[in-house]
Amino acid sequence: MIRTFKVLSLLLSYPTAEVQGAAAEFRAALAAEGLLPERRHPELYRLIDQLAGLDLYDAQERYVFLFDRTRSLSLHLFEHVHGESRDRGQAMVDLQTLYADNGLVISARELPDYLPLFLEFLAVRPIKEACELLGQPLHVVVALRERLVKRGSDYAAVFAALEALADGVVSNDQRAEALAEPDDDPNDLEALDRAWEESAVAFGPEAGPDTACSKAELILQRIVADTAPSRPTPGTGPL
């Protein structure tokens, strides 16, 4: 288990009270594993502490404003690669097949290209393979980081960490192509309405009514178990 990928997955998931309460576990996991360069730790710790200190509803509202209401910051990777083309559907089927072939069955109503889910998959792969797989959408990661930096968002720290972990290099052409996607306005309510008209697609027989929140809670249970095995998991007592 690669706990660093689990932490990054949870930091990019919809904020919950359990995630807020796991700040100490997140810090301990990152420090103990030591996969990231030391220079990446302070900015990640700042985001962790910020999430822990915010009112939960404020944290959730900020998350939705950034990642759900801003298409250019979408956490669905193929949104940036294929847009609405037919290739996107096949790419998601291929990605879900990769998950299933390696023992990960998607039980939440979430698309396979959802970045926190992808990071959860990488967390259970050998480190070399995980870094190579992360290198494939690296141009998207770079573009998202630059957009978040432009907005002054501390979430940029997660994408900087992913860049440091990925095995690959983004060419100038790839970077320019990724950044060419229009950086939409989250206050454009008409565009938001059009985005909501696109219904989510459930893949596979295990797809059910679970939410992204429940997926985050499952990941959190695993990381708390890894970092503090003697402490109760969420739902059984205080963290």
Structure explained in plain terms:
The chain has helices spanning 3-11, 17-20, 23-33, 41-53, 56-68, 77-81, 86-101, 115-122, 127-135, 138-150, 156-165, 172-179, 189-196, 212-227. The protein is globular, with a radius of gyration of 17 Å. It has one domain (3-227). The chain has 239 residues and is mainly α. The longest helix has 16 residues, at 86-101.
Features:
0% strand, 239 residues, globular, mainly alpha, disordered C terminus
What's this entry about, in short?
The chain is an all-alpha fold. The protein has helices at 3-11, 17-20, 23-33, 41-53, 56-68, 77-81, 86-101, 115-122, 127-135, 138-150, 156-165, 172-179, 189-196, 212-227. It contains 14 helices and no strands.
Topology, pairings included?
Elements: H1 3-11, H2 17-20, H3 23-33, H4 41-53, H5 56-68, H6 77-81, H7 86-101, H8 115-122, H9 127-135, H10 138-150, H11 156-165, H12 172-179, H13 189-196, H14 212-227
Helix pairs in contact: 1-8, 1-14, 3-4, 3-14, 10-11, 10-12
* Count of distinct strands: 0
For the largest beta-sheet, the strand count, sense and barrel status come to:
none
Return the average pLDDT rounded to an integer. Answer: 78
Distance between the termini: 21 Å
Rg, Å, rounded = 17 Å
Question: What are the low-pLDDT stretches, counting only 5+ consecutive residues below 50?
Answer: 199-212, 227-239
- Structural class designation: mainly alpha
Global outline:
globular
**What proportion of the residues is helical, as a percent range?**
55-70%
Please tally the helical runs, counting DSSP H or I stretches of 4 or more residues.
14
Run of helices and strands: HHHHHHHHHHHHHH
Question: What portion of the residues fall into strands of 2 or more residues?
Answer: under 5%
* Total number of domains: 1
